[in-house]
Specification:
Helix content: over 70%
Pfam family, one: MFS_1
Distance between the termini: 32 Å
Protein name: DHA2 family efflux MFS transporter permease subunit
Shape: globular
Membrane topology: Multi-pass membrane protein
Strand content: under 5%
GO molecular function, one term: transmembrane transporter activity
Largest sheet: none
CATH superfamily of the largest domain: MFS general substrate transporter like domains
Keywords: Cell membrane, Membrane, Transmembrane, Transmembrane helix, Transport
Structural class: mainly alpha
Number of strands: 0
CATH topology of the largest domain: Growth Hormone, Chain: A
Length: 486
């Protein structure tokens, strides 16, 4: 097999592992009612089927990415796949609430290890600007559109078989990916442990992120942002984060070298991602509820409703994102995509109680799909633009961390505000379709506002770098310096 072909086959292996992790989130969401009925979860207890995964996943991404740099990204990826497959088996066999929640936490550990190093491996495998843009486009499609595929797969598996199979399906996929990864993923040079591992830094950042995600998904979502528990846990999380930054600034061999944040493109891209994902993730979650609770869709119909999103995002990410980034630059492509995402959310904020899919839902989702298909590959390119070969895993882990924190934060905030608005419109009585729709519309409008803020950040923070089109010559440069600020 030629060297060039082997790299693209290796990319397919990485994306298969990523797809399995991404699918797991939305597949589980669709199956939650069946899991609740079978294992006897209360409504609050059921949330831990999702929260246990999110806490482990979001808390370990940064650490896993850095350990990939220091030890081996290939090794961390393989270990993560192994942990995820074993935990999936335990989830599928779970006969009690406690076993399922514990197994979901372990799944989150494996998911973090697998996901954190993928972008780092991609940017080292594809050093050229054009092939890197194309490879990131493939990865971005898998990472973004996988959620829509998960809705459809979850509906098919849950209704056709039972909820256990949403976990069992990971076994053949995961094992095949492990075998292929062992044979096809290249061994890379790692930075090495050097004078030792920054154990204190590892403890501080993991504790800060896990506690932060817990605060968002538990007390903030259930008790409100002004509740004592929310403020207390949030304050401790921020204090741990400050201590971590102090530690990294003074440590001789820091776990996370702070130089990664010197690039305005890297810092800006991660902030933009957190804001954009916060607006979009709440939309997808509440959009599913709108289809099911207002328009009366079942889980399979909901999955089919989002299928056009997957098709459009796939077409853009796989065929056109590389051309757009190469021709217009990552910054310009991102700005155009954010405009379309904001327009789609604003259009969603007008959905009526008696809405129809073709008139009121599909146009908004297509705008979101086109915007996402163009903007997220550009965003990933910017986020990795300041990474050296020794820091690629760290930059990859950071990019995934901001996505997870943004998703958790967006879901907690938008779902809370939506529920509050629905209660107000219902006047203390049971929520009817009009009250539910009013709550969803407010959430969609706030999501559009978050994307507008991310557009302002992109416009003011991101710099036009050397990979932008050369207006004087009308061509694109062929080389991509490490710190070019795409």
């Amino acid at each position: 097999m030629s060297s060039d072909r082997s790299r693209w086959v290796a990319l397919a292996v990485l994306c298969t592992g990523t797809l399995m992790i991404v699918l797991d989130v939305t597949v589980v969401n669709v199956a939650l009612p069946a899991i609740q009925n079978d294992l006897g979860f209360t409504q609050s207890g059921l949330a831990w089927v999702v929260n246990a995964y999110l806490i482990a996943f979001g808390g370990l991404l940064l650490l896993a990415g850095r350990m990939g740099d220091l030890l081996s990204r290939r090794g961390v990826f393989l270990a993560g796949l192994g942990v995820f497959v074993v935990a999936s088996l335990a989830c599928g066999l779970a006969g009690s609430q406690e076993v399922l929640i514990a197994a979901r936490f372990v799944q989150g550990v494996g998911g973090a290890m697998t996901s954190a190093v993928v972008l780092g491996m991609i940017v080292t495998m594809f050093p050229g600007p054009r092939e890197r843009a194309r490879a990131i486009g493939v990865y971005s499609f898998v990472a973004s559109a996988g959620g829509s595929i998960g809705l459809l797969a979850g509906g098919v598996l849950t209704q056709g078989l039972n909820w256990h199979w949403i976990f069992f399906i990971n076994l053949p996929i995961g094992l095949a990916t492990v075998v292929a990864a062992v044979r096809l993923l290249p061994r890379e040079r790692s930075a090495g442990i050097g004078r030792g591992v920054d154990a204190l830094g590892a403890v501080l950042i993991t504790a800060a992120l896990m506690l932060g995600v817990y605060t968002i998904v538990k007390p903030a979502a259930e008790l409100g942002w002004g509740a004592g528990q929310t403020l207390g846990f949030g304050g401790v999380s921020l204090a741990l984060l400050v201590l971590f930054l102090i530690r990294e600034a003074t440590a001789r061999n820091p776990l996370v070298p702070l130089r990664i944040f010197r690039s305005s493109d890297v810092s800006g891209a991660n902030l933009i991602q957190a804001l954009t994902v916060a607006g979009m993730f709440g939309m997808f979650f509440l959009g599913v509820l709108y289809l099911q609770r207002v328009l009366g869709y079942d889980s399979l119909g909901t999955g089919l409703a989002f299928l056009p999103v997957t098709i459009v995002m796939g077409t853009l990410s796989l065929r056109y994102s590389e051309r757009l980034v190469t021709r217009f630059g990552a910054r310009s492509t991102l700005l155009a995509g954010l405009v379309l995402i904001g327009a789609g959310l604003a259009l969603f904020a007008r959905v009526p109680v008696d809405g129809t899919y073709l008139v009121d839902v599909m146009p908004a989702t297509l705008l979101l799909a086109v915007g996402s298909g163009g903007s997220f590959p550009a965003l990933a390119t910017l986020a990795m633009s300041g990474a050296t070969a020794d820091d690629a895993g760290l930059a990859s882990g950071l990019f995934n961390t901001t996505a997870q924190v943004g998703a958790a934060l967006g879901l907690a905030v938008l779902a809370t505000l939506s529920a509050t608005r629905t209660e107000q419109l219902a006047g203390g009585g049971p929520a009817d379709a009009a009250a539910l729709t009013g709550g969803y519309r407010l959430a969609f409008l706030i999501g559009a506002a978050l994307v507008a803020v991310s557009f302002a950040v992109a416009l003011s923070v991101l710099k036009r770098g050397r990979t932008e089109p050369e207006e004087s010559r009308g061509t694109v440069r062929d080389e991509l310096p490490v710190h070019a600020g795409l």
